Structure formats: C-alpha cells, structure tokens
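Translate sequence into structure tokens.
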Amino acid sequence: MRARTTGRMLQDPKGGSFWFDAGAVCLDFAHTGGEGRYAVFETLHQPDDLAEWLAQPPLGAVLTVPVTARELDAAKALRQAIWEAAHARAARRPLPAEAVAAINQAAATASLVPELVPDPAGGSAGNATISRWAPPVRATQALSTLAREMIELLSGPLADRVRECASDDCPLVFVDSSRPNARRWCAMERCGNRHKLRALRARRATDPGSGRSAPE
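Result follows.
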C-alpha cells in the first residue's frame, strides 16, 4: 500500500528540479505550493492535482471519491497552516494560533483507515495479505491523516529537530530524523553544494594562492 520513505521531486520555476525529503509526509505536503511570493511554486491547480499527489507513495491514498473544489481549498488551507507551524517551530517561536486551529480542525475529521486484504499476487502459499486504505477513500480523510501526523511531529520527540534550510535564501523546512542530528540543508545537491562553492570562492578571494598548484 505505502512505501516507508518520504520525499518528492520539486520543480524550480527558474528551471531544473531536485529531490527534497522533508522527513515527514505532512512537511512534504507543505511544499506543494504556497501563498504570496510562493505562489509560483503552486502544483495543486485543480482537484485532480490533489488526488494525484495523495495517491503517490508514501501516503498511497488512491481516492475512490473525486476531489471537490471545496476540498482543494481545504487542502491549501491545511498546507499553509502546516507551513506556518513548521517555520514557527524551526525558529523556536510560539505556534500561530490560527495555524494550530486549522490543523486541529482538519485532524478532527475521520482519518484514513488501514485494512488487510488478500494479496492479488498470491504469494508462495497463496494466502499472503497486504494492507490498503479501506474504501471509501476521501480527500478529507487523507488531509486528516496529514494533520494528525503534523500534530504528532510537533508534540513528539522530533519537535526540536524541525528546522529550516541553513541557506540564507532557502525557506524549505524539514525534520532531521537522522541519528547524528546533523542535517543542515534541504538537499546537499542543491543548497549544500552551493554553500561549498561559495565557501571555496571566499577562500580563494582572501588567499589568491589557494587552489593553485605549487611552483615547481
């Protein structure tokens, strides 16, 4: 039914794409678009866009009921609330009351319900089972599941590991679930490498001889 990994491919409006793992599905969802200056990153333009995102792993919520325009609006409201709460937590500020209320409201709705069903592939003994979300599967249930995950994150042992990318111009937020608790960047191939390149240029600027071969 669901993979146990998180992360999505993000598109840069200026061109290119990169893999970003926010460490939690709810935080991945927070990066599907935004308001104001973040509107250029919007990916949930139509109800079907939301259905497609929810169907992808690790959530794997293949909806059996079409998404409505009202549910798309509710999804964007929850997304904004998760975004604001995550950034507040990363900055060690009090959580915005409106964001908390929106997350709680979404979580109050019935969530996705897992169930065991026979594996269509059978298995060696012919009695293998798999898990899936019990139908009917609605968008509101998936949003409730995301909201509940956010509540668990903000109230659990990883709450102090919610942080923003260390780059000065990158607002991406993630939870560092790694054992060393040393993650600084949204992605090494993006902001991590940019930081290394800037540091190298700075060293060369202050030391004209750095990076050159020693005279023979």
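Note: Confidence is low (pLDDT under 50) at residues 212-216.
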